[in-house]
Amino acid sequence: MNFITHSPRLGALCGPAALAAALSCAPIDEPLCEKLVGSERADEADTRLLPLDFWLQVLIPQAKRAPMSVPDEPNDCGGLTITVRWPDEALQSVDPRLHAEPLPRRPISESDFTFAEGPEGSILVWARIDHYDDGTARGPVALARWVDRGVKIYGLGTLWAPHTRARLRIEPLGDDGALLVADGEICPDRQVNRCQHHIYLLPLVERRFQQVALYEGKWAGPARVIALEERRDELKHGWVRRTKIRRRIRFGEPTLRIDETLTVRECDARTEPEQCETREEQRDQRLVRWERSAFWAEKPSLWSAVEAP
After folding, report:
1. Is residue 222 part of a domain?
2. Same domain, 189 and 236
3. Which of 12, 111, 117, 228 lies most in the core, judged by the most C-beta atoms within 10 Å?
């Protein structure tokens, strides 16, 4: 049996006033769902040890603990189907994940769980039940905390994101909001030197982690930032143009900020190593505000000029 250890003792989930409002945890005794024992105190509340099959059943009550499997269309412990919900078809149509092919569902294993420490000693957990051929996975994500008799869930949703080296954390959103930041890597054909780092942003709205859209002069699909993008164009006489953009998100301000650096180099592919010359380098900063259930960038990315015909 595999166990996950959480060493910090958990205090009240509601700490700073802004985060308390975002987590909607007043009153604290009204979680979305819970998994408690019949006795006055669970042993796990003292040891902070909980078997993975127990965690799976906390998040998905219909799951079978042995083997760790879920029904074809499972619901999370809050009673909703585990799926990404878009407010309208126009936004759904620009979601690149919809082109991915699902892989055959298999029993859930230790590698399908990601844990992290949340605010005020709470726990973030993502259980991946569906995997896709593009390197992404989907499953319930929750913000939980220990109580004397077990575990209570105070934030819940469906996360569909890259699963390789997945990490979770909570960042502030504006003056009184909370934001789930889920980042991971997609490695084409399992080539670790070609991995692409994706950062997904899911605001916590009425105790639900919501998949929302990003607008960058046009709807750009789910709210995410790709840390590095590259493009290779063939030129004449054996030369190639290599275009690269690096991005970094800045949190902790009334709005998010994305810092970008775009570099264009032309290289002689006939030489070994390639002889390259830098033709262009641009730096830019973009503010992104959270408004009307979406993220709105003040201007398009530098990459939009590269993507244009």
Report:
1. no
2. no
3. 117
